[in-house]
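This section describes the prediction task in plain terms. A model, or a person checking by hand, is given the sequence of a single protein chain and must write out its three-dimensional structure as a string of C-alpha cells. No templates, partner chains or ligands are provided. The sample shown here is typical of the held-out split.
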Amino acid sequence: MILQELTLIKGAVLSAFFILIISLFLAFFRLARGPVLPDRIVALDLIVSLAVGFIAGYTILTEQSVFLNTAVVLALIGFLGTVAFALYLERRWL
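The expected answer:
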C-alpha cells in the first residue's frame, strides 16, 4: 500500500493530490456556472492541465514512467483544443 512507507516525496505528492482535487472542484464549478463561453473554455483547459498533474503525480508514486506518454498526449490534445476554441471564438465574435 502507498501509505506503508511514507517518504518526503510521497508525502509531497499526496499533498499535491489534495490541492489538485480542490482545484478540480473549483474548475468544474466554473465550467458549469461560467457566464460566457470563454470562461468555460478556460475552465476546460484548466481541467486538462489538472489531469496532467494527476498523471504526473501518479507516475511519481508508482515509479512507472509509461504514464508520462499519456500525460504528454493529453497535454497536446488540450492545447490543440484550446487553440481550436480560440479560433472559433475569434471568428464568431468578429
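For orientation: Residues 19 and 83 are 27 Å apart (CA to CA).
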